[in-house]
Design a protein that fits this description.
47% helix, globular
């Protein structure tokens, strides 16, 4: 296959490869409620998806002190383990990853999950072998800081101009922009399409199938 634009394709995880947005929102809301704090609405809770856990708690509960953020993070972890039992990859993800791997793209993950959380879902979904590198929010700076992409490209010896970041949030697209990489948005995840399009992604996918077809024909 002749390369058209990219050698390295970096995926966000939650809301991009895995259908976990609802479980994350419910976990944030349950954590706040269990501590007697104001419960954020769905839009507010969904908007912090993609950030590191501590940064997400700061964003969803501005003005609280560090102890509250630590308590929120602890409760969130408890509820997410409960709510995440039935979470699955989006339909078509395995086919897409298999196709991209067979076409000799380098694949990576840059996620707001913890290292332990990402390792767990990679094992549970049997997808770890697809990815040449991964970065999590507890290993380096949280999105939208460019560090995840900088570290992945350095590890794999790839240039940023041949790298594309795919995600469902503005945090993903801003990280790509800050790093000097291209960005692709998926509109089936956490952030509204209007917010994603304001950041001028290279492409906006309506579904995993649409993303797969675009990458096959244009990446």
């Amino acid at each position: 296959m002749t390369r058209k634009k990219f050698n390295l394709i970096v995926f966000d995880w939650d809301g991009t490869l895995m259908d976990s947005t609802a479980a994350i929102v419910k976990s944030i809301q349950a954590a706040a409620d269990s501590l007697g704090l104001p419960v954020p609405d769905r839009e507010t809770a969904a908007h912090v998806i993609g950030l590191g856990l501590y940064e997400a708690m700061e964003a969803v509960m501005p003005g609280a002190d560090d102890a509250i953020y630590r308590q929120m993070a602890d409760r969130y972890r408890q509820y997410y383990l409960q709510f995440s039992q039935e979470i699955l990859l989006f339909d078509g993800v395995i086919d897409m990853l298999e196709d991209l791997a067979a076409s000799h793209y380098m694949l990576a993950v840059a996620t707001g999950k913890s290292r332990r959380g990402l390792d767990r879902v990679l094992l549970e979904t049997g997808t770890g072998h697809f990815f040449h590198a991964t970065r999590t929010a507890d290993q380096t700076y949280s999105k939208p800081h460019p560090a995840m992409l900088q570290e992945i490209t350095e590890e794999l010896g790839e240039s940023m101009r041949h790298t594309v970041m795919i995600g469902d949030t503005t945090h993903d697209l801003l990280m790509a922009s800050n790093a000097g990489a291209a960005g692709i948005a998926v509109q089936y995840g956490a952030h509204p399409i209007e917010e994603l399009k304001r950041l001028n992604p290279l492409y906006t996918a309506e579904s995993v199938t649409g993303l797969h077809n675009w990458l096959k024909n244009n990446a």
